[in-house]
Amino acid sequence: MGSDLLTPGLGEGNTPLVESVRIGPSLGLARLLFKLEITNPTGSYKDRFVAAEMRRILRSGARACLATSSATRGRRWRPTAPVAALLARLS
Q1: 3-state secondary structure of 55
Q2: What is the enclosing helix (H) or strand (E) of 89?
C-alpha cells in the first residue's frame, strides 16, 4: 500500500531517467532522456495504469472488481489487488 490508504501499489513509479548517448545526438538533440520502466515491480509501464485503476476503484468504495484482461495486464492485477485488499476476478 502506498503512503495513504487509497494509494495501492507495489512500488511502481519513480523510474529513473537515462540519457541517450547515441539516438539523441544522431537526431541533433542536445539532451534526450528515456524512462527506465523495467524498474517497476513487474518490469512494465503497465504497472502505473493498474495502480491508478486500483486507486479509482478504492475511492469509489468498491471492495471487489471484475476485469477482462490480456495476459500481460493480468500479470499486473494479480499482485496488486491483494495489496489494495480488493477481491479481483480476472477473466
Answers
A1: helix
A2: strand 87-90
- Average pLDDT estimate for 14-33: 94
pLDDT 10s digits, 69-83: 666 666 666 666 665
Structural domain boundaries in the chain? 17-90
Helix (H, G, I), strand (E, B) or coil at 35: strand
Share of the chain above pLDDT 70, in %: 60
28: left (phi over 0), alpha (psi -120 to 50) or beta: left
Distance (Å, whole) CA 10 – CA 64: 18
Whole-model pTM: value is 0.56
Exposure class string for 38-55: b at 16+ Cβ within 10 A, else e:
eebbbebebbbebbebbb
Other C-beta atoms closer than 10 Å to the C-beta of 65 total: 19
